[in-house]
Amino acid sequence: MIPAMVAVVLLLLSSASSQMMGGLGQDLSDLSYRTTDFSTRLYRAVARRTDDNVFLSTFTLCTGVSALMNAATGSTQEQLQQTLSQAGMDPQRVADLFQSFRTSISQGGGEFLKQGVAVFPSQSFEMSASYVDLVQTKYGGKAQNVDYSTPLEAADTINRWAQDQVGESIQTLVTQLDPQTQLLLATAASHRVRFTLPFNASQTREERFYVDKYHVVMVPMMFRSDKYFLAYDRQLQVGVLKLPMAEGVAMLVILPDEGVDITDVEDKVTAEKVQGWIRQLKKTRLEVQLPRFLLERSYSLQDVLQTMGVTQVFQDEADFSNMGGTKGPKLTQVVHKSIINVDETSTTPATDVVFSSPPPRLTINRPFLFVVYHEATSTLMSIGRVADPKKT
After folding, report:
1. 182 and 238, same domain (yes or no)
2. pTM greater than the 0.85 cutoff
3. 299 & 287 share domain
4. Who is most buried in 33, 145, 203, 245, counting CB within 10 A?
C-alpha cells in the first residue's frame, strides 16, 4: 500500500514540476520574442544614424534597461516597459525570467558572452538592499553609488568595473563625466566567436571587399567548404547563412543581393523576420567566403532611447522610488560598449569537407548584416552591420 502511495505522490510531483517547467518555457519563449523585438527596434534606431560599422550587444542592453525598469514605478516604469516590449508583464516576473535566461546561456558553456550591467546612481541617492540584491541575483549586475563630484575618479571606478566584468579587451567605457550626473546606466560586452565548422587559416586569402561602387578594400577572406544551413528571402532579396558556434549560439549572416541597398534591408529587420529566417533555413552543400573582422563600438544612447519613446526617465518627473523608497534620481547617461572578433578560431581543428563535385560558392564581399542568437530560446543576443571589415 505504502509503495503505491509513494508512486502516486511522485507522479503528482512530477506532473506539477512538468507543468511549472512548461509554464516557464512558455514565459521564456514570450520574453525571448519581446527581447528580440526590442533588439531589432534598437538596432534600426542606431543604424539610421550612421553609414559606418555597427555592433550592439542587444541582450546586454535589454538586461540593463530591464534592471532600470525594476527601479522605476508609475508612468516612468510603464514607458520603459513599452519600449522594452514588456507591456503587461509583471516586473518581478521579468526579473525572474532574466535569471533563467542567464542560467540557460551558462549551461551552454557561457564563454561566448562576457557582459557587465551596472546601475550607478550618485552618492546623494540611497539604494535599498533589496534593489541592490535584485540587480545582482536576477540580472547578474551591479548597483553601486558613485561620487560624480570628482569626475576623473568616477570614470576610473566605472572603467575598472567594466574591465573586471568583461576583461582587458575593454580599456575605457567612459571618458568625460558631468559632475552633475545623477544616474548612469552602463553596459559592456565582449563576444568570443568559435565556429563549430571552423575556417581553415591556411586557406585565408586577401580578397576584394566592395564597400560601395566607388570604394574597394582588400581584406583577409576566410574559406570553408561544408554543409551549411541557408535561406533566401525573396521579399528583401537577401541570402541568409547560418554559421553554428560553440556554447549553444549561432550567427546568421544576411547578405543583400548585388544592387540592393543595405539600409532598405535594415528598415525591415524585425523580430518576426529574424525568427522567420531561422525557420526557413535548409541544409545545402556550400563553399563560404567570409571576411575576417573585429568590431569595437561605443555608444551613448540617451538620444536613441528618447526616439524610441523613453523620455520621462531623463526628466525631473522620473520616478525611481523602487530603487530606494524616495523619488530617486533622473537618468543622465546610458553608455554601451561591445566587442566581437570573427576569425578562424574554433572548437576543433579545421578540415574542409571534400565533395565529388564543387558546390556553389557564397562570397560575402559587400556590406552585410549579422545576428547572433541563442539557439535553445531563439533569443537575439547581438546584431551588427559590417560596412567595411578593415575598420573596427
Report:
1. no
2. yes
3. no
4. 245
Bridge-based pairing of strands 282-291 and 361-363 is parallel
> How many domains in the chain?
2
Residues 67 and 110 in one domain: yes
Residues 278, 162 within the same domain: no
Report residues of the chain scoring pLDDT below 70. Answer: 1-24, 107-110, 346-358
Residue 73 DSSP class: -
Distance set, CA 170 to CA 159, 166, 304 (Å):
8, 7, 23
Q: Is residue 33 domain-resident? A: no
Candidates 339, 249, 329, 297; CA nearest to 76 is 329
pLDDT computed for residue 371 by the predictor: 97
User: Nearest 5°: phi and psi at 126?
Assistant: -85, 140
- Helices 58-71 and 129-139 sit at what angle, rounded to 10 degrees? 160
Q: Which residues contact 327 (CB under 8 A, 6 or more apart)?
A: 318, 319, 320, 321
10 occurs within a structural domain: no
Question: Is the Cα dihedral 85, 89, 93, 97 positive or negative?
Answer: negative
Co-location of 307 and 361 in the same domain = no
Q: How many Cα atoms within 13 Å fall on the side-chain side of residue 155?
A: 12
Put residue 88 in one of left, alpha, beta given phi > 0 → left and psi -120 to 50 → alpha: left
Nearby residues of 255 by Cβ (< 8 Å), 6 or more positions away: 238, 239, 240, 241, 362, 364, 366, 368
What confidence tens digit (pLDDT) does each residue in 3-32 have?
444 344 334 434 443 343 345 578 888 999
Q: Is 371 left (phi over 0), alpha (psi -120 to 50) or beta?
A: beta
